[in-house]
Amino acid sequence: MHKEQHLKSSEFISDIVIGMSDGLTVPFALAAGLSAAVTSNTIVITAGVAEIIAGCIAMGLGGYLAGKTEQDHYESELRREYEEVEKVPEKEMEEVKEIFAAYGVDDAGQELIVQQLAKNKDHWVDFMMKFELGLEKPDVNRARNSAITIGLAYCVGGFLPLSAYFFTNHPHDGLAVSAVITTFCLFIFGYFKSKVTGQPALTGALKVTAIGLLAAGAAFLIARLIS
Amino acid sequence: MHKEQHLKSSEFISDIVIGMSDGLTVPFALAAGLSAAVTSNTIVITAGVAEIIAGCIAMGLGGYLAGKTEQDHYESELRREYEEVEKVPEKEMEEVKEIFAAYGVDDAGQELIVQQLAKNKDHWVDFMMKFELGLEKPDVNRARNSAITIGLAYCVGGFLPLSAYFFTNHPHDGLAVSAVITTFCLFIFGYFKSKVTGQPALTGALKVTAIGLLAAGAAFLIARLIS
């Protein structure tokens, strides 16, 4: 029960991290790049909003499809394991033995485990799913929740850097304010991300900030080169 | 050996899918949105290239960090399991028994497995890593390979829709050609993605195409609304 809860909350956090990492970085970098090339904040805002909408939908629905695929995959493997246990039980028993042989369990031990597992087909299939294939039963609401969380996180992440262009009059000023806001947000985000994933928080914060600024710097330079 | 190979190739494919899904969708949608708002292909191309560079770096380095984090996490859990096996072996033995009790193995069977596992600390820790924590030892080159694959896939995916704006003279024409190219590429990509992940290929292709067109349509409408 506790473990299950832990798993769900970590999926939620991982979805926020997925959405917000890209959301804070890509629209910021795009706006920075355009600031090197155009003189109107409206174009930067238009492109930025278009990017955020596109990214939000693409990543959100992408997360939905990924969740659905994971579930379909689990169910098709589950059916296959039930079939194999039914049709070729000797082969499946051999596979169980091999799993334990790899951990130094002797023949008698392997035989004993196999006989006990084979008594109940549900237990046996559950065991093969987890220990042979490494698959956990996915949460039925995972795909939907994942889509919403990733999409919203991307939106929130994207509007923070873009907001600077709303209350400035020239892309150069917008970029300066946006860089300050985004550096601050990337650092805070990197800090909490590292905390929840159990990484050194300060190093993690610096890494995340560096990636964001690097992406924006590269976009800025290349856009200046083109225009 | 075969399983290991299967795992690596599926990680490679999964990285291509991650990079290309977003690469084919977001720059296309951004260009579509801008085409509703500006009259110069140069701005669309500048914004598109800036987005592709930013996305490529953000996603590539993001993949790198994710891979590194996975590895650090594995190593810190490994150290903890070695410590626990050393300091509180009775507690770890209880945990092994609980794992097997859940699958209907009786007391005598649990005891036998525990005794055999405990004979070799490396085997025992490996067992706990995989069966208690569900962690597989990550490939040492995973982070670097993942970064390169995701970044390149994003670039390739992004330049396909953008190419239309290079050989047309007005964003409206660019958008029309880009939509044709991208619909075609999304369909092909969705088809192969579904094939390799074992999903129904035609349905999968249609889903991927629909997401891309939906994102682009939304970006187009909202950009038109703003400008």
UniProtKB/TrEMBL annotation, chains A, B:
Pfam families on file: VIT1
GO biological process: intracellular manganese ion homeostasis
Localisation: Endomembrane system
TM helices/strands, residue ranges: 12-37, 43-66, 147-168, 174-192, 204-226
A Gene Ontology molecular function term of the record: manganese ion transmembrane transporter activity
Keywords, alphabetical: Membrane, Transmembrane, Transmembrane helix
GO cellular component: endomembrane system
Entry membrane topology: Multi-pass membrane protein
Listed name of the protein: Iron transporter
Species name: Pedobacter changchengzhani
Lineage: Bacteria, Pseudomonadati, Bacteroidota, Sphingobacteriia, Sphingobacteriales
